[in-house]
Amino acid sequence: MINISIADNQPVVMHGIKSFFKNHSAISISDTIYHLHDIDNSLKTKIANILMIDIDLEGLHSIKSLRRILRENPATKLLIYTCASEKLFGVTSLKVGAAGFISKNEPLKKIEQAILKIAEGKTVFSDSVHKAVLTTALFNEEERIYRKLSLREIEVLRYLVKGKKNNEISELLDLNEKTISTYKLRLLNKLHVTNLIDLVDKAKTLEIL
Predict the structure, then answer these.
(1) For 19-62, what is each residue's pLDDT tens digit?
(2) CATH number for the domain including 184?
(3) What residue numbers bound the domain in which 180 lies?
(4) How far apart are CA 153 and CA 11, in angstroms?
(5) How many distinct structural domains can be found in the chain?
(6) Where are the alpha helices (H) located in the chain, listed in sequence order?
(7) Residue 186 and residue 180: Cα distance in Å, rounded?
(8) Domain limit, last residue, from 76, 100, 134
(9) Which pLDDT value is given to residue 5?
(10) For the whole model, what pTM was predicted?
């Protein structure tokens, strides 16, 4: 039996997934988690072959948290299941070592297929992410821009797009406010813009939401 733990903010999503896999012959839901700080205890007390996690999970402010989860729980594989942009976070998921990335826009049947493949030791990504990984040489100029961003720059940009100020981002990521300013300057340079408004507009053009 493949044991799955789900970390998500939305009770409706939880209910839908649990209903879909109820009485499934190969997949069982072992736990449901609503906040990042509950993941460690859950993985210690309940078997989870795969952790399905939303990037927007309450308390998840840094990509480092995903890396830590994988490092401290090597027997558990990570499946990103989220509404966040595939264009950016699908590739990011690869960098942190996730076994797959599936959009919440996909039917639950595709989640089932992804879980079964991951349990076999395979990696699973949506068609658009898979294509992006395999066809890097064909990317146009704008598509190459976001691939130049570091994981930390991606995190800072994500909060800037959400309207967070430097001091708020500093607290969320546990970094000095001057460091956040430095990352903002790097983002302005890499995305070829000169102010925050244009930076946010550019991020939206690249679907970094």
Answers:
(1) 999 999 999 999 999 999 999 999 999 989 999 999 889 888 87
(2) 1.10.10.10
(3) 141-205
(4) 31
(5) 2
(6) 11-21, 39-45, 63-72, 86-96, 108-119, 127-134, 141-147, 151-161, 166-173, 177-190, 196-205
(7) 10
(8) 134
(9) 95
(10) 0.67
